[in-house]
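Try this one yourself first.
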């Protein structure tokens, strides 16, 4: 099956009321485990690579690994997505290497550390959307700054994350501003700020409405019911994985992630893409530590990596099933980039939510 764009995949998810997990990749083992999970439950999949992953693995290697995954699992629609692009060059170079979707994260300036103005974000995101749509590639934008509502700080990941104290206004996407932003930029999906953050240490307690603002999702969805929303920093950091990691010699302090039931509630209110990375790392790391602890003489990397891959595959299967993605792959017929570009030009992929006048009526 041909590679799929994010827009087509999320349109299908919206039509049928499910969400799609987006798993970060850095190496062959992660790609194989994720694709194996997708095949096992017949789920479409989003593979995404950060700038850090692209530097670590090399663009050509990532591209060839995804090509291999397509050959291994021809029945699975695969979207290759640039995670947190920091400028036009990052997004355009991703497109050159076969990415069918890019995120232009203009919530931060090009240094990926300094919170940007709304005007900067709107202008750069609109430029990237216009360029990407010319060749049929989807675009995700971000409005608001990812970070903790508990302590007002962001958690850096792969060199991406705001530095310094953040106000509550910065940490929460404004629904009115979101509508104006989406209409002006033409993005296909919008990542919103609602108290989630990168990394394992998202919350110091089980999150409630004070530190995980699910009401932001509901408010934006009420204004723009056809908009595809994205939850970043949405690993659940399961207790069993924390325990397994620590039993094998790790020293992870107690932490809480985003509960699965909250993600499922988000899916009911327009969330279509859910970013998951920490859970994947933790599942693999717990197995790597376990093997090393149980057999101090072991030096064959495969003996470490095979159990780690199995743990990641099991995790991904659960997320596909929990988000309603399982069983969807056979019902998707992918559209090529040339046809997607034609649809963008013709306006067939225009705004998907009512105008203010229609909503008032």
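Now uncover the answer:
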């Amino acid at each position: 099956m041909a590679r799929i764009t994010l827009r087509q995949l999320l349109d299908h998810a919206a039509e049928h009321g499910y969400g799609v997990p987006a798993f970060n990749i850095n190496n062959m083992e992660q790609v194989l485990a994720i694709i194996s999970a997708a095949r096992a439950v017949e789920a479409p999949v989003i593979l995404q690579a950060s700038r850090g992953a692209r530097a670590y693995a090399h663009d050509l290697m990532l591209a060839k690994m995804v090509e291999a995954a397509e050959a291994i699992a021809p029945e699975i629609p695969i979207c290759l997505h640039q995670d947190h692009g920091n400028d036009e060059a990052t997004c355009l170079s991703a497109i050159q290497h076969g990415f069918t979707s890019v995120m232009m994260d203009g919530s931060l300036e090009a240094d990926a550390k300094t919170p940007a103005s709304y005007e900067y974000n709107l202008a750069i995101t609109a430029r990237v959307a216009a360029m990407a749509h010319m060749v049929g590639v989807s675009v995700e934008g971000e409005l608001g700054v990812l970070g903790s509502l508990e302590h007002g700080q962001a958690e850096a990941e792969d060199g991406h994350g705001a530095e310094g104290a953040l106000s509550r206004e910065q940490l929460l996407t404004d629904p009115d501003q979101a509508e104006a932003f989406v209409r002006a930029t033409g993005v296909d999906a919008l990542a919103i700020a609602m108290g989630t953050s990168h990394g394992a240490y998202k919350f110091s307690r089980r999150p409630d409405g004070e530190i995980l603002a699910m009401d932001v999702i509901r408010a934006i969805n009420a204004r723009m019911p056809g908009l595809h929303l994205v939850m970043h920093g949405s690993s659940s950091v399961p207790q069993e994985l924390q325990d397994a990691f620590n039993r094998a010699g790790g020293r992870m302090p107690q932490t809480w992630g985003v509960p699965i039931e909250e993600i499922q509630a988000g899916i009911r209110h327009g969330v279509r893409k859910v970013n998951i990375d920490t859970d994947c790392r933790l599942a693999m790391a717990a197995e790597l530590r376990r093997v090393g602890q149980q057999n101090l003489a072991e030096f064959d990397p495969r003996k470490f990596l095979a159990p780690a891959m199995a743990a990641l595959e099991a995790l991904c299967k659960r997320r596909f099933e929990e988000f309603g993605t399982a069983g969807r792959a056979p019902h998707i017929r992918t559209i090529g980039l040339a046809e997607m570009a034609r649809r963008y030009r013709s306006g067939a992929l225009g705004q998907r939510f009512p105008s203010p006048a229609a909503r008032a009526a």
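Discussion: The chain has a mean pLDDT of 93. The radius of gyration is 19 Å.
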